[in-house]
Amino acid sequence: MTSNNTTATSSNPYGKSVADFLSRVDNFSIIESTLREGEQFANAFFDTAKKIEIAKALDDFGVEYIEITSPAASEQSRQDCVAIASLGLKSKILTHVRCHMDDARIAVETGVDGLDVVIGTSSFLRQFSHGKSMEYITQQAIEVVNYIKSTGLEVRFSSEDSFRSDLVDLLNIYRTVDKLGVNRVGIADTVGCANPRQVYELVRTLRGVVSCDIECHFHNDTGCAIANAYAALEAGATHIDTSVLGIGERNGITPLGGLVARMYTADRDYITGKYKLHKLRDLENLVADAVDIEVPFNNYVTGYCAFTHKAGIHAKAILNNPSTYEILKPEDFGMTRYVSIGHRLTGWNAVKSRTQQLGLELTDDQVKQVTAKIKQMADIKPLGIEAVDHLLREFHAKHTDNHLEQLGRMEVTVHQEAQEHSEQTG
Ligand SMILES: CC(=O)SCCNC(=O)CCNC(=O)[C@H](O)C(C)(C)COP(=O)(O)OP(=O)(O)OC[C@H]1O[C@@H](n2cnc3c(N)ncnc32)[C@H](O)[C@@H]1OP(=O)(O)O
Ligand SMILES: O=C(O)CCC(=O)C(=O)O
Ligand SMILES: [Zn+2]
Q1: Which of 28, 247, 323, 362 minimizes the number of CB atoms within 10 Å of its CB?
Q2: What is the pLDDT of residues 294-340, one digit of tens each?
Q3: Distance CA 368, CA 6 (A)
């Protein structure tokens, strides 16, 4: 029993295993795309001041890269690109452009640190988006990559809709740009169709083909965006794209908060060491406010009930040791734990803890009695914490009064007995 407990707390079963020699779960970078992919979210409109505020907050949080909208999108987008690139942030600034010389030329003039170049390689996109063959795409990629490299900027080449592209096409074009010296190649699950096993296999195959870094971008249409990012890192990817709250086209991409939560379970020291996790909530509130949405109730880490424990069995164990039902330590994220007791699923251990917080001394039997009362009342409707506290105080006062009355009666009896005794003994 004791040795099992020791094992459970001293090793991390969620971390990297020795068999995962390619894994980068404890050595990766975030390319934060709230100001690019996030601008493609239905509600998003960021004016210059808001972009700067968000860029500074992301930088302060500690993301390694900030990706911003193509300067080819509009004149204001270009000016914003210049403005953000000149802020002198610690995060490197990237802009995201089509695989086209015109876009690349405008982008290199903005002062960014690097360009993320993209072009669709799936038959859907080759037929219905840009209409180009793989031969044409390859030639275009060579020209654009060589040009960007000649400017000394960082360059990444990415295939859009990678998981619906032909594997041979993909590996050929990645091999070509790797030989040209790109910093990274990118895999994009543009429609959110991939599952973690497919991601693992593709990234692992690519890891054996290119020597440059590998960036991955996952849409969340089928709910796999975080799991896919994790699988990609396990297979040797080095960079993951995120956005705050996952905002992006349709229902978005891997959320920053969800990714750091996932990676924290793999290597807490690594994640707490490089990101200011306690700033996550403010960052999310900033972006939620900017795009006029609420942070979802079940959001990773910062959702209003992310650290609320309700059922009696959970509450008892949590109060003994929070690791029983928490994989994330709320304090590492500037959050606090809450044990909810005003409902019919509560138990006497949770109620006892509340009486202690309130400084009310009750025996275990008394706590059990008052717990029964709470459950009886909560069978009709849940009680707020004020109502529970009132009930506990009332119960305590009543108990204390009774207790005093009893004590009072005892004193009188003793006094009378003493008097009788002294009368008898004269
Ligand atoms: C999956 C993603 O999220 S990729 C990133 C998406 N980001 C953006 O689209 C940025 C915002 N976009 C824009 O402001 C505009 O679409 C622009 C400025 C890029 C282009 O605008 P327009 O010239 O009016 O073209 P439009 O948007 O209608 O169509 C896209 C054009 O880009 C071409 N294209 C699409 N993808 C690529 C690519 N990856 N590389 C090169 N060309 C591409 C298409 O062939 C089409 O060109 P065409 O008009 O000659 O047929
Ligand atoms: O540039 C990339 O890798 C990703 C582009 C994109 O947003 C997507 O394919 O969904
Ligand atoms: Zn995307």
Answers
A1: 323
A2: 999 999 999 999 999 999 999 999 999 999 999 999 999 999 999 99
A3: 33
Token output for 215: 């960036």
Distance CA 297, CA 306 (A): 8
Each residue of 203-228: b (16+ CB within 10 Å) or e? Answer: bbebbeebebbbbbbbbbbeebbbbb
How many angstroms is it from 269 CA to the middle of ligand 1?
41
C-alpha–C-alpha distance, residues 354 and 23, integer Å: 45
Q: Is the pTM of this model over 0.95?
A: no
Q: Report how far ligand 2's centroid is from the alpha carbon of 237 (Å).
A: 15
Q: Classify domain 308-398 by CATH architecture.
A: Orthogonal Bundle (1.10)
Ligand 1 atom with the shortest distance to the CA of 73: 14
Residue closest via CA to ligand 1's atom 18 equals: 73
Nearest by Cα to 77 from 47, 102, 55: 47
Q: What is the ipTM of this complex?
A: 0.97
Fold of 6-290: TIM Barrel (3.20.20)
